[in-house]
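Thread title: Can someone regenerate the structure for this chain?

I was given the following input by a collaborator and told the matching C-alpha cells would be attached. They weren't. Posting the sequence so someone can regenerate them.
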Amino acid sequence: MPRPAGTRNHDFIEKRAALLDVLTEYALTSDLRRPSLRQFALAAAASEPTLRHYFTDRQGLVIAILENIGGRGQPIWDLVSIPSADPVSALAEYFRVSEAGMRHGGFIRAHAFGLIEGMGDETVGAAYLSCVLEPALQAIVAKLSGTPGLPDTQEALNAAALAVLSPLLVLSLHQDVLGGSRSTPRDTVSLVTHLQDWLGVAFTAGR
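Best answer:
Regenerated them for you:
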C-alpha cells in the first residue's frame, strides 16, 4: 500500500545524501547563475517533487549544499589550523594549503556559490557564513593563536584572519571566477610571496 503523505522512505538518509553529492557537484561546476529548482532536478535526473521531498524547497536545498560543502572543507580547515613554529612558517603553510584549495580544489567556486546565493537570501547568507566563511576564518585564528610570535588577543587574531583570507579570496575570484586570468592576468606566485612578506612584517610589528 502507498506510504502515508509526509512519511519518509526507509532509505531516506542514504538517498538524500546521494542526491546532495550530485547537486553539490553541479553547484560547484555549473554556471554561477542561481539555478532554479527545475535545473537542479534536471542535473540530478530527478523530479522537482523528489527534491521537495528531500529538501523541502529550493532554499532548503541550497542550505543543504552549503552544509555539504562545509563538511567537505573540514579536512582542509583542520590542516590549516595546525600551529607553526614561527610567523613566517605559519603564513607560508597557510598560503600553500589554501591557495591549492582555492585555485585547484574547488573552494573558490564554493565561496562564489555561497556569495551569489547568500546575497539574494538572508537565510542562505547565514548558512554560507556559518558553514563556509566562518570556519575558514576560525581555522586561521586557530593556526595563528598557537604560533609563537603572533598576535594573541582575540580582536587582533580576528583582524589577522581577515587580513590573511581576504587577499587570497579576492585574487582567486579575480583570476578564476571573473576571468581575470584571461583579461588581466596576474603573477599569482609573486603576489602570494609579497603577501607573505608584508603580512609577516605587519603581524610581528603589531605585538
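The chain is about 75% helix and 0% strand.
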